């Protein structure tokens, strides 16, 4: 694509250079990095003391995930013993390829990795397959947002903890009043993610939940054919005319494209929390230190996404790996991940909250420079600043109260692919009837191949 481009999440990592008082992403001032991947082939060295952390490409602002790994390497246990050295292994830029690679390694029983950074929909498959160790001693367990912590549970055991959470947020240009209800959003000038990838599953589920099918296709509950035929299918058929009208451009949008559309003038955008820092760093979206956009929770229900940390069952250093998981999911790391990295944290305390004091109005956060102690240069300011981070934190907390997980099944990837295919056929008016849709989705939840 010609002209200015935002850097895609899950495709490339990036570093932005500061110019004057703002971070800028314009050509010539932005360094686009295709990081030299630290991916290594499956190894048989099970006697190593080094900890290998496997996940996708680090696209957090300022590569904050790598910064946290460096912080672990430079710090020590309370008694003075050095932490074992850890390395972030960037498996793939594609979420689908991350899943395939990590699954292949774990299925092989190889000891290539110690800590896994996983999409929270993978817990059931990886735990059910015997690939993960239960996490028995979780520090300050009650400090995690409960819904986010539950995404790491399977069959009554805790196998993973939140690294970052994702919830659907509504971005709006200044002067634009965000709609208070779901129908108003669908009829507005809004950018969503309806291209053929996981974003279509997410956006379609949100549409279904907010149009007569609440409680279906979420969590461990299984909808029967009647639910799928009489509630889910009609909601999708009602969405189809929008896919040919106000939402037609969004059928070509992933996260990157929707951010670009919003920055180019589309009045509203549904996206994850990380988009806030990306937009705040864009000169078109700023007037000096003031942002030209705002953010709120989506009106209605939203998908609870995010990534979790887990210890591989085959790690040769399981105790050290569990310590690293505790470090990365601890309050200090979570604060840095939010203020410096742009990702929403999994703990109340990272937003200045507690389980008994969790109102959005109580959110209190610090800037990146105040957390790191690194001085700003002459004329530089934190981007985002404390007030802007507070606005984001309040939107995240509000959305968490309305967030629902995607279906919990060891066969989630089969479900998602089938669901997306069916949604596209419904959008295209390709003759998919309610019964065919219901049978295909029900089969996919059991891992059986099906299509509409």
TrEMBL record:
<keyword id="KW-0732">Signal</keyword>
<dbReference type="InterPro" id="IPR050490">
    <property type="entry name" value="Bact_solute-bd_prot1"/>
</dbReference>
<comment type="similarity">
    <text>Belongs to the bacterial solute-binding protein 1 family.</text>
</comment>
<dbReference type="InterPro" id="IPR006059">
    <property type="entry name" value="SBP"/>
</dbReference>
<protein>
    <submittedName>
        <fullName>Carbohydrate ABC transporter substrate-binding protein, CUT1 family</fullName>
    </submittedName>
</protein>
<keyword id="KW-0472">Membrane</keyword>
<keyword id="KW-1133">Transmembrane helix</keyword>
<dbReference type="Pfam" id="PF13416">
    <property type="entry name" value="SBP_bac_8"/>
</dbReference>
<keyword id="KW-0813">Transport</keyword>
<keyword id="KW-0812">Transmembrane</keyword>
<feature type="transmembrane region" description="Helical">
    <location>
        <begin position="12"/>
        <end position="34"/>
    </location>
</feature>
């Amino acid at each position: 694509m010609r002209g200015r481009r935002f850097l895609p999440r899950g495709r490339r990592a990036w570093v932005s250079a500061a110019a004057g008082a703002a971070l800028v992403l314009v050509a010539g001032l932005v360094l686009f990095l295709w990081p030299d991947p630290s991916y290594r082939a499956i190894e048989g060295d099970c006697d190593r003391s080094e900890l290998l952390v496997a996940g996708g490409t680090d696209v957090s602002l300022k590569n904050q995930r790598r910064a946290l790994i460096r912080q672990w390497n430079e710090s020590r246990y309370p008694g003075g013993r050095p932490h074992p050295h850890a390395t972030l292994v960037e498996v793939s830029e594609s979420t689908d390829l991350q899943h395939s690679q990590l699954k292949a390694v774990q299925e092989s029983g190889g000891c290539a990795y110690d800590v896994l950074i996983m999409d929270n929909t993978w817990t059931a498959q990886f735990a059910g397959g015997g690939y993960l160790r239960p996490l028995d001693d979780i520090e300050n367990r009650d400090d995690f947002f409960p819904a986010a912590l539950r995404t790491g549970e399977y069959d009554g055991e805790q196998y993973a903890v939140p690294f970052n959470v994702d919830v659907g947020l509504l971005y709006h240009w200044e002067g634009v009043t965000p709609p208070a209800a779901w129908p108003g959003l669908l009829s507005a000038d809004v950018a969503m993610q309806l291209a053929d990838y996981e974003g279509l599953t997410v956006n379609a589920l949100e549409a279904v939940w907010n149009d007569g099918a609440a409680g279906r296709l979420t969590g461990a509950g299984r909808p029967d054919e009647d639910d799928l035929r009489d509630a889910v299918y009609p909601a999708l058929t009602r969405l189809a005319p929008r896919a040919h009208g106000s939402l037609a451009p969004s059928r070509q949008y992933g996260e990157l494209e929707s951010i670009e559309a919003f920055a180019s003038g589309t009045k509203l955008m549904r996206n994850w929390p990380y988009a806030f820092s990306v937009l705040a760093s864009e000169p078109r979206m700023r007037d000096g230190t003031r942002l030209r956009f705002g953010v709120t929770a989506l009106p209605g229900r939203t998908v609870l996404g995010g990534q979790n940390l887990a210890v591989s069952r085959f790690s040769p250093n399981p105790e050290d790996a569990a310590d690293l998981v505790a470090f990365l999911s601890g309050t200090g790391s979570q604060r840095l991940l939010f203020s410096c990295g742009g990702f929403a944290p999994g703990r109340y305390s990272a937003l200045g909250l507690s389980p008994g004091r969790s109102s959005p109005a109580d959110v209190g956060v610090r800037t990146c420079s105040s957390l790191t102690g690194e001085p700003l240069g002459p004329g530089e300011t934190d981007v985002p600043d404390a007030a802007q981070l507070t606005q984001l934190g309040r939107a995240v907390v509000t959305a968490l109260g309305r967030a629902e997980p995607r279906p919990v099944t060891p066969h989630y990837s089969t479900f998602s692919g089938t669901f997306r295919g069916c949604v596209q056929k419904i959008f295209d008016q390709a003759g998919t009837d309610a019964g065919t849709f219901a049978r295909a989705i029900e089969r996919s939840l059991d891992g059986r191949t099906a299509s509409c």
